[in-house]
Amino acid sequence: MRTYTPKVHEITREWRVIDAEGLVLGRVATVAASLLRGKHRTYFAPHVDTGDFVVIINADKIVVTANKAAQNFQYHHSGYPGGLRSTSWASLLENDPEKLVFDAIKGMVPKNRLGRAQMGKLFVYAGAEHPHAAQQPTKYDTSAIRRG
Predict the structure, then answer these.
(1) What is the model's pLDDT at position 3?
(2) Pairing label, strands 53-57, 15-19
(3) In CATH, what class is 15-64+97-139?
(4) Where are the domains of the chain?
(5) Following DSSP, what letter does each residue of 35-73 receive, concatenated?
(6) CA 5 to CA 32: how far, in whole Å?
């Protein structure tokens, strides 16, 4: 039996909204990464972008379990000697929660051209409002995602 590969014109993309209020960061990230990759589709193929567009709202109300907010850091290096900079998750949650959620999801998609294309379909917003109402997004059922 031959292996089926989805064609570009056969792929239908939907817009999904995930309300992250009160949800655990890692659990939201895994669900979003799965939707971006298209793993929920019956015709999923790892070498084709079959995923949906994902809009995450209320990123500022996401929960980080245990003491991870104080213990975990995000690092950035300028490329120069002594150029390593670190930011705690607590300050990221306070100042830039969109970056924390975006980077958590980014770590769960492939690190290649396909992964970059999939990340282009992700939109993260700190508040409850988003500018994608014209696309008529459907609300994702978050009852299966455990709350923190």
Answers:
(1) 87
(2) parallel
(3) alpha beta
(4) 15-64+97-139
(5) HHHTTTSTT--TTS----EEEEE-GGG-B--TTHHHH-E
(6) 23
Helix, strand, coil distribution of the chain in percent, nearest 5: 35, 20, 45
CA distance 21 to 132: 19
91 touches 70 (CB < 8 A):
no
Residue in this structure with the two tokens 């109300």, named with its chain if needed: 61
What the block records as the tokens of 29 is: 């990230």
* Cβ pair 6, 43 in contact under 8 A: yes
**Could you tell me where the DSSP H helices lie in 76-148?**
89-95, 97-106, 113-119
Distance CA 95, CA 97 (A): 6
Q: Are 59 and 92 spatial neighbours (Cβ–Cβ below 8 Å)?
A: no
**Residue 135 phi/psi, 5° resolution?**
-80, -5
Tens of pLDDT along the chain (148 residues) come to 888 899 999 999 999 999 999 999 999 999 999 999 999 999 999 999 999 999 999 999 999 999 999 999 999 999 999 999 999 999 999 999 999 999 999 999 999 999 999 999 999 999 999 999 999 999 999 998 877 6
